[in-house]
């Protein structure tokens, strides 16, 4: 903190945090940041998909991938795979 500009920035950051806390704006700020990141992730996936479809090697890689995804198994409290729906109902 030798530079006074950093010190001024730190004071402004503290004032902004205090105003945000006083007006209870942490929740809305978190929701907006979460929505923006989700939208950016979807846009990035869309652009990557378009790029892969446009290139020859991307099309080959997409053709090699199978349509069957890996499915997650439901685990019981001991960490073992639960076999049927009856096991899930009993644990609840």
A few lines on this structure:
This protein has 92 residues and is mainly alpha-helical. The protein has helices spanning 4-22, 26-54, 56-64, 85-91. α2 (26-54) crosses α3.
What attributes characterize this protein structure?
mainly alpha; 92 residues; extended; single chain
The percentage helix is 55-70%
Please report the total strand number as a whole number: 0
Shape: extended
Low-confidence stretches: none
Mind telling me the C-alpha Rg?
24 Å
**Number of helices in the DSSP assignment:** 4
Judged by helices, strands and strand pairing, the structural class is mainly alpha
Q: How many angstroms does the end-to-end distance come to?
A: 55 Å
Order of helices and strands: HHHH
Biggest sheet features: none
- Mean pLDDT over the residues: 83
- % residues in beta strands: under 5%
């Amino acid at each position: 903190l030798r530079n006074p500009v950093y010190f001024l920035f730190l004071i402004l950051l503290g004032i902004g945090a205090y105003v945000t806390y006083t007006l209870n704006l942490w929740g809305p700020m978190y929701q907006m940041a979460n929505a923006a990141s989700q939208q950016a992730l979807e846009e990035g996936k869309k652009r990557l998909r378009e790029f892969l479809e446009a290139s020859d090697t991307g099309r080959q890689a997409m053709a090699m991938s199978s349509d069957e995804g890996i499915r997650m198994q439901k685990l019981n409290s001991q960490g073992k795979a639960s076999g049927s729906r009856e096991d899930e109902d009993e644990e609840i």
